[in-house]
Amino acid sequence: MTHTRDALVLVDLQKAFFDEEGLAERQTAIVDASNRLIDAAHSADLPIYVIPTEHSRDESTWTLNMLEAGTGFLFQGDEGTQIVPGLKTTDTTKVEKTRDSAFFGTDLNMRFVNKRISRIILAGVSTHGCVAQTTRDAFAHNIRATIVTDAVADTREDYHRAQINQLEADRQATLSTVDEIIARWQEAS
How do 93-94 and 119-125 pair as beta strands? Predict the structure, then answer.
């Protein structure tokens, strides 16, 4: 049996995402759940990655939708790109992305290989976009993914539930709660 090494991955926990209806009312719960995971990961001596989305104003990092609309967002340095208030980011590693997947155009996979990470524990927003795409790309890189169901959210509950169900049905993710993850890490320590 091979040893599994986890990393906590926190996706798009930025101010701009929580301005959206459906997420605004979940901000406190998601931050609290994420902080519990962060504390437990620190106690278990596991790496923690904070993955925000940030774009350049020069259009070089814009998505097709942004280019077609002629309008960008989440620009480096703007208030909306800042991490949500209250999230504990001390002793975490920040990896900026420009697409839904935390793997696309970043060195995240190399970091995981170097640290011998074989499973990521995912929290953040939005389930149907960045959480789902990061999960699928983890699978493509032969890294297992666990979605922490009470630490992820979406603008619409039906999108959230559909993505989680599909990722689990495709066997590209397992599902756990914050309490289950913390118990697993404490048991392994």
Answer: unpaired
Q: Is 96 strand, coil or helix?
A: coil
Cβ neighbors of 114 (< 8 A, separation 6 or more) are: none
pLDDT tens sequence for the chain (189 residues): 345 799 999 999 999 999 988 899 999 999 999 999 999 999 999 999 999 999 999 999 999 999 999 999 999 999 999 999 999 999 999 999 999 999 999 999 999 999 999 999 999 999 999 999 999 999 999 999 999 999 999 999 898 999 999 999 999 999 999 999 999 999 987
Burial of 169 (0-12, 13-18, 19+ CB in 10 A): exposed
Question: In the 3-class helix/strand/coil scheme, how is 16-71 assigned residue by residue?
Answer: HHHHCCCCHHHHHHHHHHHHHHHHHHHHCCCCEEEECECECCCCCCCCHHHHHHCC
pTM above 0.85, yes or no: yes
Q: Please state, in angstroms and rounded to a whole number, the distance separating the CA atoms of residues 48 and 89.
A: 9
Please give the Cα distance from 15 to 30 (Å, whole number).
12
